Amino acid sequence: MSEEKKDEVLNEEVAEQETQETCEESCEEKELSPEEKIAQLEAKLKESEDKYLRVHADFENIKKRLEREKYAAIDYASEKFAKDLLAPIDTLEMALAAEEASKDLASDELLGKLKEGVELTIKNFYTAFEKHDISTVDTDGEFDPNFHDAVMQIDSPDHEDGQIVAQLQKGYKLKERLLRPAMVSICKK
Asked: What share of the chain is helix, strand, coil (3-state, %, to 5)?
């Protein structure tokens, strides 16, 4: 027998089987009375409604939980940063306590220790800033109105027109977003 004939015979057998199965299903349905069909359909409908209500309830619960988590995340977003600022505050408090305890020291020694405490506190602040991607705005070179705030114009033979001459107050960025522009004086010829 050729391949085509075999395929035709096989296709006919499959079609016969499908017809018999369809007939058996329809025969079973014919055996059911209209009341039984209605009862069967009502049971399927009730089951579908129950599934729908459960899925809808699950969805609402997830939605409420995500909403609570979102507000908690917003409320406590700065918690890590606040914890990192505790170290500089502790350093300042220790510096004040050391000043009280060192009444015997000469004023030069006391001033040196106080300066050392302030430097350590500033270092702690910069460490906390570094952890949280806070950086200073660069003030070397050309004036950029996106990052600098020019508050004065100065004649300077050492600088080109529009270059920054001096920084009056540091500026800071959080990642790439500006927190505060640097206050600078620029050269005006």
From this structure: 60, 15, 20
